[in-house]
Structure formats: structure tokens, C-alpha cells
Specification:
This protein starts with 6 loop residues before the first helix and ends with a strand. The protein has helices at about 5-25, 35-50, 115-135, 145-155; strands at about 55, 70, 75, 90-100, 100-110, 160, 165-170, 175-180, 195-200, 205, 210-215, 220, 230, 235, 240-245. The protein has four helices and 15 strands. The chain has one domain (about 5-245): Creatinase/methionine aminopeptidase superfamily (Creatine Amidinohydrolase, Alpha-Beta Complex). It is about 25% helix and about 25% strand. Strands 1, 2, 4 and 5 form a four-stranded antiparallel β-sheet that branches. A three-stranded antiparallel β-sheet has the order 3-12-11, with no helix packed on it. It has a three-stranded antiparallel β-sheet with strand order 6-10-13, with helices on one face. The protein binds 2-amino-4-trifluoromethylsulfanyl-butyric acid (MF3) and cobalt (II) ion (2 copies).
Length: about 250
Amino acid sequence: MIYIKSDDEIQVMRECGTLLALMYDYLEPYVQPGISGLELDKLAENFLLKNNAVPEQKGYKGFPSTLCVSINEQVIHGIPSKRKLKEGDIVGLDCTISLKGLMTDSARTFAVGTIGKKEKLLLERTEKALYLGIDTVHSGMRVNEIGRVIEEYIKSFEYGIVRDFCGHGVGYDIHEEPTVLNYYSSRYRQRLKENMVITIEPMINLGRDDVRVLSDDWTVETIDKQPSCHFEHTIAVTEKGCEILTVK
Ligand code: MF3
Ligand code: CO
Ligand code: CO
């Protein structure tokens, strides 16, 4: 069942999403060579607690931290550690938070200092893929059209679209129905309706699409060790389009 939120619930999620966007704006200047994932995690947690938000990832299925911090070939779900970021790295930060029991989820990939040309293009194109997906959303469409549009765009580059992870409904749980793939599949064809809330979150690899989970049971990395990029927004479906909730 895909849960349809009330206007009041959407209003709370709007506030929640804005706070999450503000958290990333707060973190951005700290994302520099020399800082560690653990330090970023602490900054994020302090910011959220000061603003009465709950870091929902901490303790979720045993995940230990507020942020997912995924560096270079790490795709998603990286566990913050003492490893220091260095010039030329790309780092994906992902976070789910709640306000008054309702959650939003967003991710951004940052450049650490000056990065290579290939990495820069990967970041730009992955974010573009997210916005192309967002632009297609409207009430009455089938959810698998989102993946079609993302795949269609990414196909023009020699990138790998991660197939093992996807977007999802969000609100009272981190992962609700429906499944929002980043490629076309005839399997997921529910129609979106006004006030459904979903995430769109392309994970795009510079190389092949294959990924594996490390022995820490969380970190997902590319098999060929090439860099990977992830951008995510939470959006609410409207009659004519959608509203991005995880923005200022
Ligand atoms: N934010 C992630 C997502 O986009 C979920 C993270 S799982 C956790 O689906 F364990 F790290 F919380
Ligand atoms: Co996320
Ligand atoms: Co998500």
C-alpha cells in the first residue's frame, strides 16, 4: 500500500525537508581536505539536535551514525570513520531525519577541493539525472516512468546505473512503498497520486554498474573501484507536477 499524506502531514515534511537542506548548507564549508567522516557526522548530529530533529539513520537496522559518508568508489551507506578526506576525493553524504514523527531523506555528493574532470562531469550529470526524474513526476503517471527518464539520459554516457538500490516512499518509515528504480522496469507500475511522497536517488558509477557490500555489512562499493555519485531529494506529488521537500 502506498500511503497518501494529508496536507498537514506534507506541511510537517516540508519543514523537515527544509531543515535537511539547511543541514547540508551548514556542512558544505566543512567538506575540505583534512576533515574526517566522523567529524562531519558530529557536526550534522549537533545541528539536527539543536533544531529538534531526530537523526533517523542512527540505530536504523544497527547503522551506527547520523550520516552515511561514502567516499570515491563507495556508492552509499558508508560508515563515518576517522579516515580524512583528501584533495580530489568525492564524498556522498546521505541523511534521513524526522520532525514530529515524519521523515525526509536527501543526499548530495561534494567535491573535496579540486577534483578531476571526469569526476566533475559525473557529479553534474548525476544531479541532472535526479532533476530530469523530478521534472517528469505528476499525479496519474506510473512510477516506472521516472526510471525510464533517468536511464534514457544516463545511457548517453559510458556510466553504470546502480541497479541493486533505489528510491522509495518515505514518511512514517525510512523506506515505504513504492520502489523507485533508476532504470526502466515493467515490474513497478503503480500510478502516483497527489500527496504521495517519494525519494528519487540516482546512484551513478563512472565505470561498470556492479556493486558489492563490504564485510562491515553496510558500505556499498563499486566492483571496479571506480568512483560513484549519489544525489537524492524527497518530493511530494502534486496534480500537475511535484514539490521538492528537501530544499530551502
Ligand atoms: N538514506 C538512505 C536512503 O536513501 C537510507 C540509509 S540506510 C541507513 O535510502 F541505515 F544508513 F540509515
Ligand atoms: Co537517503
Ligand atoms: Co532514500
